[in-house]
Write a structure and sequence with these properties.
Length: 65
């Protein structure tokens, strides 16, 4: 029910969610590894897909001590 472009973007964002949940990798590195042009492009796509910017997602995903 979606275009191939939407499907690929969602798959990249899902993979990025796993990397963000994992901890210490910088956002710029995650953006590059997921194939985004830069961190700003990654942040826009991530926010569109999840409703949160990557940094906020990471804070929510980290377990509390």
């Amino acid at each position: 029910g979606c275009s191939i472009t939407d499907y690929i973007r969602r798959a990249r964002i899902l993979r990025a969610c796993r990397l963000l949940d994992g901890g210490g990798m910088p956002l710029s590195t995650i953006a590059a590894e997921m194939g985004f042009a830069d961190q700003a492009h990654f942040t826009r796509a991530f926010r569109t897909e999840t409703g949160l910017p990557p940094g906020a997602f990471r804070k929510l995903a980290r377990p509390r001590p």
